Each structure stands twice: as structure tokens, then as C-alpha cells.
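Pasting two entries for a bug report.
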Amino acid sequence: MQNLNLLTENSRNFSSLDELEKLYSEYVYEESEPFHPSQVSLQTDGTYAINGQEVAGTYSSLKGLCKLLRIPNPFASRIPVDLLQRNIDRLSEEANFEIKTITRKDGNIANFVKEDFVSIPHQMLFEPLANKYGSADVLEGKVSDNWLALSLTKGEDEFFKSFEGVSPNDKYDMGVVVINSPTGHMTTQARVLLHRLICMNQVVGPSNFDIVKCRPKPNRQLEKVVDNFVEGISKLYCDVNSIESAITSLDRSIKPEELKSIFNAVKKITGDVEFVDSEIFGLDPDDRKEILTNLKKYKQGQIEAPPEPQINLYDVFNNITEQAKTFEQEERYKLESYAGKLISN
């Protein structure tokens, strides 16, 4: 995908519900009639030919098409363009389903989705959200062609609580992150959010925390489905004492096995080994390799126990959420969600 002339996604930040109300009219999309995937072909310049008509698309639209055709993203990103074209052509012909395009106001494609996908317009979600959470603080907000992410804290529902981290000065607010994607890049959902006040870092609650999802089906009353989703947000539950205990338990030296697991996970998200070594662990690459080599020797029975790295796990946890703020929307969300997994046990 690197050599293709794909469009970047339009994106805007906002800091209040009033700002969002002015923005969402810019992020309105149209759906095509369903058609068979074989009617799409990728051109060498990164445009699509659909029924003989040439149209441009975003980088994420091509990822979406590859996902529908079950072409793994790492593979699609690295192979030559001609091989990617052949894979798309072959798998499109074999597909036993129909798809639709989701098109931006400028006529360019934001995504490809299956024919039964039901889009929730931002405006339809905004109105009940504003009515229910108008008094909450908008911690952060971003809307793009991929999705809308709205982080709320200090609301009136029961889950909007505060607690301490590893010290009395290390305070967290609990809140909620609401995500909506009219273009089908993410499932509409609400998840528990942790906001560390000392550095403004965010942690997205892991899968074993409570979560509310909205997957509308065709022929269902969409407004009612959205209203039920917003009402469900107020029923989110998370045990504050368990979270507080999980966070404070990170204030210790990292184990070699944990370092290996975190290294692999963050490397997969960012694709940058040097970044993981320097910004997440504060390690020289040779030192990290030595730690992993000793771990391998231990598992093979060559040494009694691998030396424990002099790295604090809570620092690593905070480094992940701090560095997440330097990434684009998709990678940031993945990093903040991965940080949540570190407190899931």
C-alpha cells in the first residue's frame, strides 16, 4: 500500500459537545447500492475502477476492502502492488457476498462494507448523547472519516468516579469513551475510560471490563436502537476497588516474560522496534536482546533464573499511554486499549 496514491482521512479535534454539533455535518456519508466485489479493481495509482468508473479512496478504504476479502493487513501493506491487485481480483471473484461503498461528501470512498451494514449517522447519536451527558466534561474528542471518539468524565452516572493510583498525588478519573463509525471502520460502542490527571493520559478499559455495543440490523427502527444504546451507557459497571488494586500492583519490577509480551504487542501496533526500546522501556537494543536471550536460556533449562530487568512496570504502563498521544487515531486507540489489558488481571 505504501506506493499507492491513497487519500488521507479528514479529521478534526473538538473539546465540547457544542463544537461537535458544528462538526458532524462535515462527516456525512452516502451508501451505494449493493454489488458483487468482482466489480471492483484496484488501479496501479491507488484509485478504484468500479463498474468501469474511476474513483479515489482513502488508505483505510483499501484496508477495509482487504479485510472483507480476508487479506491480512500486514501482508497487504508489504507486498508489491501488482501482487495485491491479483489477490484482490482473485478473491473478489470467489466472494459469495455483496458489498457497498461508503462515500464522502467529495465523492471519494471512505470504506467498503458488507451489504447488510447499517450506518449510524453522527447526528442521530449526538442528540440523545447531548441530552443525557450535556453536563459531563469532554476530556477529548476527535472525528474523522474512520470514526468519532468522544471521551467523557465527571458526569452524573454512577461510574464517573475518582481514585488514587500508586500515590495520593497520582489520581485517576473514571469516565467513558464513546465510539461511532458511520463508515463501518469500528463497531459503535462505549467502554470504560481511565484518565490519569497528572499527565492527561488515557486508558481504555479492557474486554473483561463492562462494554456496551450497538450493532443495528436492517429493517429495525434505528432511532430506537440508538436510544437503547445511549441508555445502556448509564448501566456500565466497573469495580473501582479492583481497578485501583490492579494499577497499584503494577508498581514493581517488570518480569522478563512480561517485557517480551509487551515488546511484541507494542511492536505489532507501531511497527517500530527502536521506538519500543527507547520510548517504552528506555532500553538499548542490545540490553533488550540480552534480556530475551536469558529468558530463552531459562526456558531451555540452561540457567536457573533470568536476571530481573531494572524497569518498573508502572512506568512502562504510563509510557505506553503517554506515547499513544503521539500517534494517529487508530494506533492511539490500540495502544490505550493495550494499556488497559495490563490491568485486566
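Entry 2 (this is the one that rendered wrong in the viewer):
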Amino acid sequence: MRILFLANPLDVHDFKWMTYFSSGHDSALIVRQEHFQKMSSGQKDQFIRDDGIQALWSLRDFSVARPWRTLKEMFRLRGYIKDFSPDIIHVYFAEPNALWALVRSFVGGRSKWVLTTRGTDILLTIPKFRQRNDRLGRLIHWLYRRAFARFDMLVATSQAQILSAQRELGYSGITSVVRTGVDFESLSISRPDLLPASLENRRFIFFPRLMAPVYDQELSLDVIEALPEQIKSEYIMVFVDRDQGHPDYVQMIQSRMQQIQGVRFEFLDRLSPEEVWELYKAAALTVMTPRSDGTPVSAMESLMCGTLVVAPPLDYDPELAKELLVACSRQPGDFVAQIQLGLNRKAQIKPDSAFFCLASRNAQMSKLARHYESLLACSERSSSAILSS
């Protein structure tokens, strides 16, 4: 099987999905130019040398405002696909990558096209184009509607994303929920040396989501302000992504932190997955306050490390939701109540539970592999039917 990915290798979830398949299948990767420029030469070499990627290319975004640039990139994409001749073209994250399906008949040959949504793209960003209520917004929303219709399969990381694609964009093709999943084997390896020295033998509450408006870190700070003084004094509040978050947003969050009295904050840079896992294992509790979410790996990893998670009242998969401490509303006081409930408890995930199966990356990737095979089998049956007619 030959697979061409349009993905962001700097995103840990994209990377894990790709390398699961690139180790056993001929694979190539197209990277959005803005992500490609952030990659070091060493990273680019590693994808080809160690991760099984046979070709690595860049592509500028599909742009409605720059049609001539889009036309040039369309020919570039056609050349990549012609050179690699993939059986499967898998596009990760719908906004803006899904728009390339609009020119599928020109660039795609006989490849099967698969789209994976991750949450924010289909639940928040794309619907906002319609809500803008201007001509350009309506045009872009219409283009996404057309683009989605040209994929052979939509693979979402939660059922809510599929429902949104169906309601918002009228998608009526094949769908499947494939969760991002957790690497149990790597997660089980203990590396206490990776825990920051400032947190050794200290009690802390961990806020693991990245520094971006969709994760509503302002609400996290509102919750901290509303905590009882005893919790404020006994626990360090740990945040991450100081160096790679949205700069204006990071500055605003730092300013807010400085204004909160009686609380010690530890604001760390973006960490490796292994460093984050050690924080989950050592934390008294994990807290997250996103405005929109899929099936968050951060929550699943924390639970598998034995640390309970306080989360907002979003449309989480039931297998996950029943393991979370879900606030009744987005009011800070409701989060405080769940924090007080969770501080003296540990997560206990049973190996035979529905959540355990949902969280297993190997199980989820095996499911995706079966989808690839099914799409190609359908294509072969169609070709046989044409030849025999």
C-alpha cells in the first residue's frame, strides 16, 4: 500500500499516526509551507532516515484570495501525486487542507482520498465562516461543503465531529470514528528524571492544554482565583507552552497570573510527550477548560497515568465522559466543586473497560488500517466490474 499524507509532522498526533503506517508501507508526506519552514534540516532528514517517509514536500495553502498562487500550487500537487502514485491520500485536519479535494479530479488520479478531522477544525473554525455573514465567509463555507463531498471517507476523532460535518456541511459519505489513542507501552516507562526540579516532591495541579484561545486558559485562571485559600496555598498551578503559544495570548495569560494573589504558578515551555507524561504521573489533578474538544489525548493520557481530569461540559464520547470529573457549567464555581472532589482520589482504569479500548492507539490504528484496505478493495471490485462489462 502506498500512502501520501498531507499533515503536520510537528504535531505529535499527526506524527504518531503517520509513523504507525510509514514503518510498514511506502509513504510520502506533504507539509504546509508554514510548518515546513519551522522544521529544522535535522528533522527533515530524520523523517526520511528513521521514520520511513520516502519523500517530503511542501505546499502553500489553497487560497481563495490568491487564485494564481492556488493554481500554481495545484500543478505542484499534481506533480507530487504523479511522482509518488499513492493508493491512499490521507489529509489531516480539515482547515485549510480539505480544500485541496476541490481539485481532486485534476490532481488525484485514482487514489482514494481520506480526511481526518481533529475537533477544532470542524466544530469551531469552519462553522465560523458561515456565521461571519459576509460574501467571502459564505463562499469559503460553500467551498468546504463541496470539498468534503469529494472525500471517499471521513475519519473523525469523535462522534460529535461527524455529526457536525453532516449538519454543517451536508456530508453524506462513509464515516468512522478513529480516536487519536494513547501509546500505552511508551506511557508505562517511568522517567522521573524528566520532572522539573522545581516540582520534585511538590503538590501541584496540572493545566496541560496549549496556549491558544480555543483552550480558554482565561477560564482556567478564573477557576484558580475561585479556589479556596487552602488549595491555593498548598498546590502549585502548572501551565505549559510559554515559548510556542500565540505570543499575544501568552502575554495576556502571564499578565493575569501576576495579578492573582496567593498562588504560585509554574509556567513551563512546550514539553516533549515524555516530559508531559511525568507531569501527569506526579500531578494531584489535571484540569482543562477548552471551548471545543474532540477526544483529547491529554485527558486519556492523564487518566492512564492514574490522575483524574476535571473537564468542561462538552460533547465527549460517553466512554471518556464517565471517567472525567465534568463541571456542570462553565462557571468557575462548578469547576472548583469538581477539583475539590478529585484532589484526594486517583483514576482507576480497568483493562477490560470500554475506555481502555477507546484509548489504545494500536487498536485505533488497526481500525484505520482496515478502513484503508476496505477502500482499496472496493476500488479493485469496481475496476473488475468495469473490465468484465
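Dev reply: Rendering is fixed now. As a check, the viewer should reflect this: Residues 361-388 form the longest helix (28 residues).
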